[in-house]
């Protein structure tokens, strides 16, 4: 297969390298951000120039470091940098899980969403806060599940959002296909600097210690939901799409059509 690899942790991230190694039997193309882009979501660069620097990347037909966001990497990759249309876009492996409301701000998921907007099946792959470079096993799981995802005739309509718990693979209890579990609220720490009427917020490194700075709200707490399943040692697969419409509210709002404007 022809595979476009992207991520949000940057082209030199170990998670991306692990994916390339696990998928080395395929025709790989890499377009990844030149710097860390976590939290970029599906944002795209419109008001400034982008630069793509050609890089050597073991196992890839071609590789570029792009000065933009993860979604930019997919857009520019498909439109300009790749000589062929890929069969699939795979985004990751992200350092840290991407579940529930995290998917809104996730650059990893954002890149995969850009893929399905181009009618290309797309996977987002993440591992729950790995220690000591625990990316090999999640990469192997992604490679193993890829053909099953592509076997779905509707695979180009949703992102295959894969999250793998970190730690000993022998302790993985199985796989759950899940829904979102609730809202995850982050509590970031800033050092504040004031200069007249200007306030500068410097992010403190403590945001890299996620268990201490995010809170679950409205958690359903069953194994049918991603965060709970992950905490109980399960790999999770959540089908994610771009459609953010709350469909059951549309009939309730229909009365607005009859208002005099």
Low-confidence stretches at least 5 residues in length (pLDDT < 50)? none
* Oligomeric state of the chains in view: single chain
Q: Mean pLDDT score, rounded? A: 94
Largest sheet geometry: 9 strands, mixed
CATH level-two architecture of the largest domain: 3-Layer(aba) Sandwich
- Tell me the series of helices and strands, N- to C-terminal: EHEEEHEHHEHEEEEEEHEH
Provide the spatial order of strands within the biggest beta sheet. 3-4-2-1-5-6-7-13-8
**How would you describe the shape?**
globular
What is the tally of helical segments? 7
The CATH class label of the largest domain is Alpha Beta
Q: Could you tell me how far the N terminus lies from the C terminus, measured between alpha carbons in angstroms?
A: 54 Å
DSSP strand count: 13
CATH H level, superfamily name of the largest domain: Survival protein SurE-like phosphatase/nucleotidase
What level of helicity do the residues show?
10-25%
Give the amount of beta strand, in percent. 25-35%
Present the secondary structure layout.
Blueprint: E1 2-6, H1 14-22, E2 27-33, E3 52-54, E4 60-66, H2 70-81, E5 88-95, H3 102-105, H4 107-117, E6 122-128, H5 136-150, E7 159-165, E8 174-177, E9 183-186, E10 190-195, E11 198-203, E12 214-217, H6 226-231, E13 234-240, H7 250-253
Describe the structure.
- This protein is of the alpha/beta class.
- It folds into two domains: 2-181 and 219-250, Survival protein SurE-like phosphatase/nucleotidase (Stationary-phase Survival Protein Sure Homolog, Chain: A), CATH 3.40.1210; 183-214, no CATH class.
- The chain has helices at residues 14-22, 70-81, 102-105, 107-117, 136-150, 226-231, 250-253; strands at residues 2-6, 27-33, 52-54, 60-66, 88-95, 122-128, 159-165, 174-177, 183-186, 190-195, 198-203, 214-217, 234-240.
- The strands form three sheets. The protein has a nine-stranded mixed sheet, with helices on both faces.
- Strand 10 (190-195) and strand 11 form a beta hairpin.
- Helix 1 packs across helix 5 (136-150).
């Amino acid at each position: 297969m022809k595979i476009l690899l992207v991520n949000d942790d940057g082209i030199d991230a170990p998670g991306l390298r692990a994916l390339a190694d696990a998928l080395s039997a395929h025709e790989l193309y890499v377009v990844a951000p030149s710097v860390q882009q976590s939290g970029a979501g599906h944002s795209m660069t419109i008001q400034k120039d982008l630069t793509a620097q050609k890089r050597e990347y073991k196992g890839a037909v071609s590789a570029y470091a792009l000065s933009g966001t993860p979604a930019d990497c997919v857009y520019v990759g498909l439109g300009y940098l790749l000589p062929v249309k890929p069969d699939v876009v795979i985004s990751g492996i992200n350092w840290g899980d991407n579940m529930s409301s995290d998917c809104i701000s996730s650059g990893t998921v954002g890149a995969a969403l850009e893929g399905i907007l181009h009618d290309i099946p797309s996977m987002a792959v993440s591992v729950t806060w790995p220690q000591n470079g625990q990316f090999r096993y999640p990469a192997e799981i992604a490679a193993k599940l890829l053909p099953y995802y592509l076997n779905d005739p509707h695979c180009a309509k949703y992102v295959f959002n894969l999250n793998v718990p970190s730690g000993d693979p022998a302790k993985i209890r199985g796989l759950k296909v899940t829904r979102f579990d609730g809202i995850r609220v982050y509590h970031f720490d800033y050092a504040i600097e004031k200069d007249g009427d200007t306030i500068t917020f410097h992010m403190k490194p403590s945001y890299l210690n996620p268990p201490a700075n995010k809170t679950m709200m409205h958690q359903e707490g069953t194994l049918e939901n991603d965060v709970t399943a992950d905490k109980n040692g399960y790999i999770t697969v959540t089908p994610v799409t771009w459609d953010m419409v709350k469909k059951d509210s549309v009939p309730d709002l229909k009365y607005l059509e009859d208002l005099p404007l």
